[in-house]
Amino acid sequence: MDTSFFVSLDKKALYHNIEYLREYKQKELLPVLKANAYGHDILLIAKALYDYDIKVWAVARYSEAVSICEYFKTLSIDDFKILIFESLIDDYSLLEKYPQICPTLNSIKDLKNALANNISIDRLSLKIDFGFGRNGIKYEEVDELKNLIKYNSLKFLSIFSHLFSSSYTDGLEIIKKFTDLVNMLGRNNFEMVHLQNAAGIYNYDVDIVTHIRTGMLTYGLQEAGFYDLDMKPVFTGLIGYVDSVRYVNELDYVAYQELSSIDPGTKKIAKIKIGYGDGFSKANNKTTCLIKKKEYVISQVTMDNTFIEVDDRVNVGDEVHLYHRPNEIKTKTSFSMLELLIAISPLRVKRIFKGEEN
Fold first, then answer.
1. Is 308 found in the same domain as 213?
2. CB under 8 Å to 293, separation ≥6 — which residues?
3. Which helix (H) or strand (E) holds 64?
4. Given this model, what pLDDT does residue 168 score?
5. Which end of the chain is more exposed for a tag (fewer CB within 10 A), N or C?
6. Mean pLDDT for each 10-residue chunk of the chain (358 residues)?
7. Residue 296: which domain range?
8. Are both 200 and 271 inside the same structural domain?
């Protein structure tokens, strides 16, 4: 029996979240697939979105966009677009090779270089920096930007900024600045306009935007302070099977620790084939997992294996659910479910939509 672990995903939940957010904000979605689709598998999610007729997505880095393009090439699919938010344009040959890739201009210099290299402006986005401290065209450079747009009759794929963690009134000020800026540059010069992060989607209505840019919310992951019961988690579990069971009285050690490290009443130690080498963090030591609807303590996480304090109910081949209480995990590990899910190795742990295991 294969006792390796996999991440179980719910495609119906993904589609539910899309429809719910569309209806809620009366806007189209721009799903963000960065960081392996927030740990859900960038290729799996991109194909699911494509099948749902959502064909424009965003990532952070060129490498992420290239991986999607190469995968979709094997499927003979080319009618999609991928916006890249973070990586700078430093290899124009990539844009020739992958016409679906749509970079972001983060400075006036980027825009001038694109014009000098005859890059189609209608595949590029402008990012505006309102003090987020990451990157983007500075607000003080807007007059120069306006002149370049007017002089060269430029039309872009999109313009965007970011509603970073700020007070409610600061957010309103950014929305006003962004709205005024887009109108000043010419609203018709941009096919797409987007601004909100997850908290911003709940806090504000922004008339000027055409799309809501959804990262965490696409996958039903929710931020501290915001919890919407109508959102559904796409992640449904980190699942595998018991690989071996040993009686404690047969052991001198549990992996690298002495027997004194486990609860004195423990009769058996079960081993599962997942560890921090797979991205299952040592922070999970002394948390619990679920076997046959009962919680058991995780005794020790090693590089390739994890050891669990169990009883006579547990046998080889039993199904094991890790992260079975995702909303409580931060209080037990100090890491959010988002951080833990992104850390799970895409090479060693497959992502699978429920019902599509084969």
1. no
2. none
3. helix 62-74
4. 83
5. C
6. 87 97 95 97 98 97 96 97 85 88 93 91 93 78 93 96 77 92 96 88 90 94 79 96 89 72 82 96 95 95 94 96 92 93 96 85
7. 235-353
8. no
Amino acid 2: pLDDT: 72
User: In this structure, what token pair is assigned to residue 265?
Assistant: 């009443």
* 303 annotated to bind ligand: yes
pLDDT of residue 218: 95
End-to-end CA distance of the chain: give it in Å, rounded.
16
pTM for the model: 0.93
CATH number at residue 53: 3.20.20.10
The torsion region of residue 311 among left (phi > 0), alpha (psi -120 to 50) and beta comes to: beta
Nearest-Å Rg of the Cα atoms of the chain is 24
**100 and 16 fall within a common domain:** yes
Nearest to 344 by CA among 283, 289, 290, 300: 283
pLDDT given for residue 165 in this prediction:
58
Assign 3-class secondary structure to 278-342. HCCCHHHCCCEEEECCEEEEEEEECCCCEEEEECCCCCCCCEEEECCCHHHHHHHHCCCHHHHHH
pLDDT for res 224: 66
192 among the known binding-site residues? no
Q: Are 220 and 209 in contact (CB under 8 A)?
A: no
Q: Which residues contact 121 (CB under 8 A, 6 or more apart)?
A: 114, 115, 152, 154, 155, 156
